[in-house]
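Q: My labmate handed me this sequence with no annotations at all. I'd like to see what the chain might look like in three dimensions before we decide whether it's worth expressing. Could you predict it?
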Amino acid sequence: GLTEAMESTPDDTPLVIIEGAFKTAWLYQHEIQSAVSTLTSNVSDEQACLLISTGRPIVLCFDGHADARDAMQRAAMKLYERTYVRITRLPEGREPDDLSGDELRALLPFLF
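A: Here is what I predict for the chain of 112 residues:
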């Protein structure tokens, strides 16, 4: 979904990085068209390079579980020296596609 996110949003819109493809569709339905899935909680070196090459700010928005938070920290370490990275913590046990549109807007107000 990286190409779609880049084509459907202004150049300065942060990319919201999430873990699953279906979660991307959920965010898109709630007006977050810059959502991109890694398809796993790990960001590979190749994915990190692709994200950095976009020149966009990066928002990591993984699930609200301890292992996902650890994965976000590892991803941030791969990205932060070469691009702007923001970590968005979901409530414990919640996933992006568990959140309503209002909850997503409250969590990511800078996108609206």
